[in-house]
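Summary for the steering committee. One of the milestones for this cycle was to obtain a three-dimensional model of the protein with molybdenum atom bound, which we needed before selecting residues for the alanine scan. The sequence and ligand used are listed below.
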Amino acid sequence: MSAGGRIRRSVCALDCPDACAILVHVDGGRATKLRGDPAHPVTRGFLCAKVTRYLEREYSPDRLLYPLLRTGIKGEGRFRRISWEAALDLIAERLAEISRSYGPEAILPYSYAGTMGVLNGSSMDRRFFHRLGASRLDRTICAAAGSAALTASQGYRYGTDPEQFPRARLILAWGANILATNVHLWPFIVEARRRGARFYVIDPVRTRTAELADKHLALQPGTDLALALGMMHVIIGEGLYDAEYVAHHCLGFEELAELARAYPPERAASLTGLEPAEIVELAREYATRRPAAIRLNYGVQRTDFGGAAVRAIAALPALTGAWREPGGGLLLSTSHAFPLNRQALERPDLELASPLKRPARLVNMCELGKALTSLDNPPIKALVVYNSNPAAVAPNQNLVLEGLRRPDLFTVVIEQFQTDTADYADVVLPATTFLEHTDLYYSWGHYYLQLARPALEAPGEAKSNFEIFRLLARRMGFTEPCFEESEEDTIRAALSSGHPFLEGITFELLSREPWVRLRLGEPFLPFAAGGFATPSGKFEFGASALDFRPPIESRQGEEALRRRYPLELISLKSAEGLNSSFGHWPEVDRATSVARLNPQDAAARSVRDGDPVRLFNDRGSCVLTASIDANLQPGVVAVPSVRWARSCRGGRNVNALTSDRLSDLGGGAVFYSCLVEVTRCDDSYSPY
Ligand SMILES: Nc1nc2c(c(=O)[nH]1)N[C@H]1C(S)=C(S)[C@@H](COP(=O)(O)OP(=O)(O)OC[C@H]3O[C@@H](n4cnc5c(=O)[nH]c(N)nc54)[C@H](O)[C@@H]3O)O[C@H]1N2
Ligand SMILES: Nc1nc2c(c(=O)[nH]1)N[C@H]1C(S)=C(S)[C@@H](COP(=O)(O)OP(=O)(O)OC[C@H]3O[C@@H](n4cnc5c(=O)[nH]c(N)nc54)[C@H](O)[C@@H]3O)O[C@H]1N2
Ligand SMILES: [Mo]
């Protein structure tokens, strides 16, 4: 890690399971190239396409370099440069005044995983808002339903080591577009297939991952629960389950068996749109072709009943005892295996030192539009956004923008780029990138902890979130010692949980070693002998919550809605971008500007390939370019996301269509339960 060397180390901070170890080639203070570290066991020497090109983002002329004060109207994007002193004074003064007049809960932080770094993602910022007594944000936009489901069934939210995938003989990618969103798992799958494994994809959309699979099961959106129950019907009915594992390590088998009896393959087939024989075959293969690994990603749970679906899918490896075998089991996330000392990092106890003197109310981030337009007692009067771009990524965009336009809302946006959200700010503060600041990185796709030091100098006057919240704390007169902690102190505090997975992992070790594997015991077989962290200590099937229900907009009584909006919109992740983070790149903009339609659906609407089309429903509309695709099933529209709203005609992207309803568990987002209609735009406008 020598500062003067030609190669420096970093860690990719993007919200992706892979958390890659990066080698930064530096020449005369300027980086010339980024490479994946060949020695890292998961990065294995390559980076995804967008991070290979990350230096274009790093050195972009569009980087925010100075604090800005709004001069135009909200959303217009006109600003002038101000000094850090003036910006911090103004923010501190306004926050203090709002806290005095309305109570501190009138202040709302809004952040997600723009950086996965612990320091810049959830440390000084949280301390600051806790001490202030601000409303707490329930960070539900991505993974809440799936997390709540695993918590209920398994207790622990970790699973099969990705490095064990080569040992699997059957791999199911279930709502997981591995090539786009988790590309460092792919080599392990290739290796498994070389050794004879079969690889199946369960996804309503024919993604590139699905194209390269041995089998693609293109089920109807939001019907995974019915598929899993149909599989259980066969597995239990034919005695293919592991009776011993179930007897010792699972709770609620009788109720589950009774529920599964009600889902014979014909019924599961009619609910999912698959063939009965396909379901029978899948179930038999899953139970007998062992080890069997399921890569479940978060696609399934971005739906109305996604929590129940995840519980049912997670029941499969418990039922078959797949957890006993290296290369068997299920992987949704590895994040819960990183038992950092969150109390020390975030200091929730500081709420008691705030004027509120109690835990503040919780605001669900999926309902930002509602919070900004109708929350009361107190209303939201100040919004502080960092690590996120809600004007583009939050559901029910029209309501979000209505809120952001409020002249009486004081909005601060800490950003690297002038995003859709930054256009609505009163004050914009320039932030550093992961190449420019110190941070500690866990991962949600592997089991290595990594520390990164700045590889490059911050441009202009950009500062890290960590530093910005420390400065703001001083301005607010907060005197608790935690606000004076250095990055090193904070990393030491993070590592101090005393959990056995972190045993011997110190700041010194992380400074010496480029990555450190958690102390998991090898091979890591988390549930080979049960050991679930549920109230019963067993895997809890929870059958009473697993009866199938169709997505809300498609259920009985909603036929009229379904007639008006007959197409299911899935605004899945784009392979080229990362959420909205690369929205200013023309290639990413182009890739996220299309709506894929089946030829039948297109013909019924006189839409030709390349036509501008309007997608609409009762919540809003969005204009995109039709891409006709015979490989996509009829009735589904697939939109790679998330494009910057300002690049779309009318200033609205696909989230003008998505709903801010909450999922069945965890209060999560339901981006993929969304009905729309599509029409050809009559005029000839096309952005490309
Ligand atoms: N290149 C790239 N990588 C990314 C991201 C990105 O934007 N771009 N985003 C990052 C983030 S924040 C996350 S959370 C992860 C997400 O990673 P993934 O969960 O893999 O990504 P998604 O596209 O949300 O969903 C995966 C698949 O689920 C499918 N799906 C949708 N509805 C259903 C359903 O009802 N049933 C089933 N079985 N499948 C369904 C979608 O068609 C999609 O192909 O990726 C991370 N990595
Ligand atoms: N339609 C639709 N909408 C979706 C999704 C979908 O699949 N379809 N996916 C949803 C999901 S899973 C997620 S996770 C969310 C993601 O939504 P967001 O969390 O908003 O993610 P990004 O759009 O990548 O925006 C992250 C922002 O953080 C900034 N940033 C990065 N590092 C730093 C830093 O160190 N400091 C500061 N201050 N800023 C930084 C980046 O410049 C970027 O603008 O989107 C959700 N929205
Ligand atoms: Mo996400």
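Key point for the committee: The chain has a mean pLDDT of 97.
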